[in-house]
Amino acid sequence: MPNKITQLFNIKHPIIQAGMIWNSGWRLASAASNSGILGLIGAGSMYPDVLREHIQKCKKATDKPFGVNVPMLYPNIEEIMTIIVEEGIKIVFTSAGNPKTWTKWLQDKGITVVHVVSSVKFALKAQDAGVDAIVAEGFEAGGHNGRDETTTLTLIPIVKEQIQIPLIAAGGIATGKAMLACMVLGADGVQVGSRFVASTESSAHQDFKQVVVDAKEGDTQLTLKELAPVRLIKNKFYQQVQDLYKTGPTPEQLKKLLGRARAKRGMFEGDLEDGELEIGQIAGLIHDIKPVADIVKEIVEEFEMAKQNVANT
């Protein structure tokens, strides 16, 4: 299904596998790219030398395009960007920061730059910064999210109305029907995160993957908005956060409770009680763990069938 996104990234289907911390290592990214979509390595949970290792392994595992997702609040950001250039990466998704900081620097080195936003305001800033495309991520998404709580169904057409560059929808997309809906609303492609967490190739702990599969509607909640909004599965740690909120905590008290490496403990090490378990609302519609190739095939086939069904009504 050739369009702006498939042409921009030289991929078969306009689908991006999100670069999620503790989930998106080289195995997931290479499997995604080999399936005809764009795979992304999630640099947010990697030290520079670890990122280099994942990039090199990904290059050996696929000859298809893949990219790196870089949260710009990363403490070693200069070293990360240097590694990306040295390793010949041609696609970078940036998030959590000002797109003007790195966009031109990367583009001058022949790199396509996409920025992730959660509002029209930041979409326009990203466009002004000269990015090649935008990911507009709705409130339903897992991991860190926007403070405005704008849903994908609302965000996509509002952003589409204001920008001229390619638009990728994210947040609550795990099926071909959802993909079609987003594209009808104006998206040129979609970014899928949570569905790929529950994949064979995801680097997440098996116990976390099973929690995602077992999750039902209402089992996640956006919280910690004073720090960086994050959608969590409700567990012991989540309840501790809610109990602390009853006391009217300061941001410092919230930071103290959060501590360090909480997300790693939950998603990567499988601590289901005291870990931070980040996932999107769409987890309630994820019922199995399967290879990436099967997930992509399922999404694409459902997309084509849904498109045909709509045309016939």
Write up this protein.
The structure is a single chain. This protein has 14 helices and 11 strands. It has 2 domains: 4-203, TIM Barrel (Alpha-Beta Barrel); 206-282, no CATH class. The strands form 2 sheets. It has an 8-stranded parallel β-sheet with strand order 1-9-8-6-5-4-3-2. By secondary structure, the chain is of the alpha/beta class. It is globular and about 50 Å long. 42% of the residues lie in helices and 15% in strands.
The secondary-structure class comes to alpha/beta
In helices, the fraction of residues equals 40-55%
Output the strand order for the largest sheet: 1-9-8-6-5-4-3-2
Radius of gyration: 18 Å
**Could you name the CATH topology of the largest domain?**
TIM Barrel
Taking pLDDT < 50 over at least 5 consecutive residues as the criterion, the unreliable ranges are: none
